[in-house]
Amino acid sequence: MRQRKRTTRLASGLLLTAVAALSAQACTSAAGGTATAAGAAGSSSSVSSDAVWPQLTLSSAQAAFRSYATTSDQAAQTGNRTLALSVLTGMASDAMSIQYLLTKQSGTLPPYTRYTYGTPAFYLPKPPGAGQPQYFVANVARTLVPGTTAMTSSGQDKAAGVQLPSSGRVLMLFEKSASSGHWRLASLSQLAPGQAVPALATDSHGYAIVESLGAPSSTALVRPALAPALQATVVDDGPSSAASQVVASGPLTTGMYDQAASAARGITAPPGDVHQWLLEGSSYARLALATADGGVLVLYSMYLNNIVETKSALDQDISVTSGPAIAVPDFVKPLLPASRWTPHTRLQVQDILSFAAIDPPAAQSGQKIQVIAIGGGLRYAYSN
User: Residue 217 and residue 260: Cα distance in Å, rounded?
Assistant: First the structure.
């Protein structure tokens, strides 16, 4: 039995906001240069007076990428958790911490999953104002090294069970905070088969143009901050959701709904219990970059909660009773003590996920938001 936490009022409100934004768009897309693989050389003449960072250069982005690739590979070969986390921050750090916990619980020995990388295309924004984190994005082909051991026991505990090829193109969001002063990987999302990143808009110095997440875009279909919420509404409520009028179907929208609705990951409610799932926002790093055709590429992270519980646990007006045992999938058990493997009241499983979505230009009639990439995996489990 499925009970929706999201109401039709929320979905309708999001849709009305999206439609209102759409009606306010210009009828023609803005002209913009194509993003280059090299990014910008970096000229101090374009730095604003309140900027805290020196201008980001291609060479510094390349150095940060090489440092990550080398360090993460050494950590995978040796199983060194501290070394692995030293080049990560935010969502990427939290996701990797759980992977190391899972390997320890399962007794899996290194070398762990290793990758080789092609030549990245770098998207380099201008430096932000004082106290704000600095970002850049690497778009690169990643290839699995044969003969290494996966850190996760099955595809179900990685990226919400969405099945992706072992090798593919990834979007890597790097962050440098004002406090650390070091570049670290904040999130990594793999493009779904058939998806590609459109050319990005650049300024006169070749830097990628950062769009405000909260402010309406002058040319995109919706405000960039709405893309995650609209995706979440479709994941929660499926193709019948009002938000599906502006969000395209696919493996990272309606496909995730189908995964949950069909209990494809083994999370299911016994007779009389309730199964809920909810994709919700997070405070991890987000970035919106203008595309050359007037749209926006949005990078963000979210939590996916799957909850199975008795009706009495769900509704305080019902006397507390325990139901039949809830089946805990094997991939969740390492996050729970053995004494909690047969809960009778509640099971909660949470994934931490990164996404990339294309908020298309409003001028292109009939276009919808496309969620093109996903990363992450298990973060938390609880039962009683």
Answer: 33
pLDDT tens sequence across 297-319: 999 999 999 999 998 766 655 55
Number of domains in the chain: 1
CA angle at 217 for the pair 213 and 221, rounded to the nearest 5°: 105
Range of the domain at 88: 8-383
Spatial distance between the Cα atoms of 36 and 30, rounded to a whole number of angstroms: 18
Contact yes or no for 105/146 (Cβ under 8 A): no
- The two beta strands, 134-144 and 121-123, are antiparallel
257 within a domain of the structure (yes/no): yes
Q: Is residue 326 part of a domain?
A: yes
Residue of higher predicted confidence among 280 and 178: 280
Counting Cβ atoms within 10 Å, is residue 50 exposed (0-12), middle (13-18) or buried (19+)?
exposed
Q: Name the token pair of 27.
A: 């009828």
Q: If we measure between CA atoms, which residue out of 308, 348, 335, 307 comes closest to residue 324?
A: 308
DSSP-assigned letters across all residues of 341-380: SS-SSEEEEEEEEEEEEEE-BTTSTT--BEEEEEEEEEEE
Point out which residues pair with 169 in neighbouring strands: 141
Phi, psi torsion values for 140, nearest 5 degrees: -150, 150
pLDDT digits (tens, 9 = 90+) for 267-293: 999 998 999 999 999 999 999 999 999
Q: What residue ranges in the chain does DSSP mark as E strands?
A: 115-117, 121-123, 134-144, 168-176, 184-191, 273-281, 287-290, 296-310, 346-359, 370-383
Residue 1 lies in a domain: no
Q: Closest Cα to residue 210, out of 353, 56, 85, 62?
A: 56
> Is there a domain that residue 2 lies in?
no
Tokens representing 156? 């179900």
pTM: 0.87
